Amino acid sequence: MPIDARVGLRVLVIEDQHDIAANIWDFLERRSHVVDHCADGVSGLARALEGGFDVIVLDLGLPRLDGLDLCRQLRAAGHGVPVLMLTARDTLGDKLRGFGEGADDYMVKPFAMHELEARIRAVHRRVQPVRDTLVLGCLAYDPATMLATREGRTVALTRLQGNILATLLRDAPKVTPHPRLLQLAWGEDGGDIAALHTQVYELRALIDRPFAHAMIQSVRGIGYRLVDLP
Ligand code: CA
């Protein structure tokens, strides 16, 4: 599953210990994930309810709202986002309670960062075994097959083109900044702005040029965005 290993996930970290949160943040961002952080349960629940995350890393012991209560309220609100719970309390009781409140996996502190990332990817795959096709108007892209379809015409994309298009589709209608595209498309290899422009040029040749209207728009000096047809 090469595309899964390359594309960063959007991870919300709800953890009140700033050193642990900072370590997780640094490690995951270096591994091309996009991380958001809340330091207490109330703000964490509010952010989680806004949606848009692939996985939530949730500390059990949090100020203002406990991790178990947060998880229960999140599930009660109908959110199925995978939750990986962290705890210092290595007891069977807490573990079972965590699963009872809807957590999908569980890690006991201290843990190795590479194991945390592996668990994040595993829980994401397990909870969402079929990655949804991304759609904007007449344009669709399936990350599993790396095939893009526009107005009934299907083309195969390269890994880089696919990563770029998937990111633009997920962010649409918002502008995706150049640094985010570089991070999510190239990951640790690190592309540069010239390589990005080249890839977008090739992407446009496949999904825009054969058609009457361009969907990929360049926002000068900032990034790219996808627009639905007029
Ligand atoms: Ca804590």
Question: How does this structure look, described?
Answer:
With 230 residues, the chain is α/β, with parallel strands linked by helices. It contains nine helices and twelve strands. The strands form three sheets. The chain has a five-stranded parallel beta sheet, sandwiched between helices. Helix 3 runs parallel beside helix 4, helix 7 packs across helix 8 and helix 7 crosses helix 9. The chain is elongated and about 60 Å long. The protein starts with a helix and ends with a strand. The site of calcium ion has 5 residues, from loops.
Give the gist of this structure.
With 230 residues, this protein is of the alpha/beta class. The protein has nine helices and twelve strands. The mean pLDDT is 87.
User: Any idea of the CATH class of the largest domain?
Assistant: Alpha Beta
Molecules bound to protein: calcium ion
Low-confidence runs (pLDDT<50, min 5 residues)?
none
Write down the overall geometry: elongated
CATH architecture of the largest domain: 3-Layer(aba) Sandwich
SSE string: HEHEHEHEHEHEEEEHEHHEE
Beta-strand residue percentage: 15-25%
The CATH homologous superfamily of the largest domain is called Response regulator
Could you tell me the CATH topology label of the largest domain.
Rossmann fold
Strand order in the sheet with the most strands: 2-1-3-4-5
Computed over alpha carbons, the radius of gyration is 19 Å
Largest sheet: 5 strands, parallel
Q: How helical, in percent, are the residues?
A: 40-55%
Number of domains: 2
Q: Output the number of helix runs.
A: 9
Secondary structure: number of strands? 12
CA(first)-CA(last) distance? 36 Å
Mean pLDDT: 87
Q: Helices and strands: which structural class?
A: alpha/beta
